[in-house]
């Protein structure tokens, strides 16, 4: 059910609860719900749907931001300010829970406004469910099922986009390739369940080692890649050292004597996908030849 925290005041001569200073902030009645549905159906982007809906909801409430939380994560309308007071609504459709819609406003939400927003939700839920279904399918196509990391197909697309941006903006970036030392022995001696646990642990190590601007990929098996949005070789070394340090601190990975070998290279605006990948792969080969559990540039 709706979990809405409301502070209200009685507005004289109206008989309903409205936000403080409502006379100054209540705008005209919203346009037809049919028009809203038609606009919401123009996109399958969750962020796009929230942005369209937020524009419509601003005709009822002085809104600083709109956020939606679901099993796919957190999305919000463009330009949202989530520092104001949150007002939460559970969204359900045909006994299916979609997630939680959160309005942010500096003014308390009155009962009358709450009721009108609930009416608007009937226009939102079907387009939003379609967008959620689409994004679930899209995620299955681009995510590794075991670790939740981006997969090889997504890597190919991301590398091509990075190189195109590098050519246009002359902004180099780095490619890092990684694999796990002694991983085959883990599968052979302890079984694939333990092997899967090791892979998931290493995926968590990678997540803890990079910044929000960097991207992580699993190719399959024990092969991983990072696209590092930084033009400096020193950044690669910092990230590689952090990864090897976290691996050495992992009880699971030390228990099975698993370490990581790492190769990296800096991409430039003359590169094609095969060239930059081949250089990083040669760096990985150098790390293996140097005794493993180390990082080498090429």
CATH superfamily of the largest domain: Reverse transcriptase/Diguanylate cyclase domain
Strand fraction equals 15-25%
**H and E order:** EEHHHEEEEHHEHHEEHHEHE
Q: What is the residue-averaged pLDDT?
A: 88
What is the CA-CA span between the terminal residues?
57 Å
Query: Spans of 5+ residues with little confidence (pLDDT < 50)?
Result: 1-28
- Helix % is 40-55%
Structural descriptors:
298 residues; alpha+beta; Beta-Lactamase; Alpha-Beta Plaits; 2 domains; 5-stranded mixed beta sheet; 4-stranded antiparallel beta sheet; 47% helix; 22% strand; elongated; GGDEF_dom; Rev_trsase/Diguanyl_cyclase; Diguanylate_Cyclase
Description of the structure:
The chain has 298 residues and is α+β, with helices and mostly antiparallel strands. It has two domains: 132 residues, Beta-Lactamase; 146 residues, Alpha-Beta Plaits (2-Layer Sandwich), CATH 3.30.70. It is built from ten helices and eleven strands. Strands 8-9-7-10-11 form a five-stranded mixed β-sheet, with helices on both faces. A hairpin with a 2-residue loop joins strand 3 and strand 4. Helix 3 runs antiparallel to helix 4 and helix 7 packs across helix 8. The longest helix is centred in the middle third of the chain and has 32 residues. The protein starts with 8 loop residues before the first strand and ends with a strand. InterPro entries: Diguanylate_Cyclase, GGDEF_dom, Nucleotide_cyclase, Rev_trsase/Diguanyl_cyclase. This is diguanylate cyclase. It comes from Pseudoalteromonas gelatinilytica.
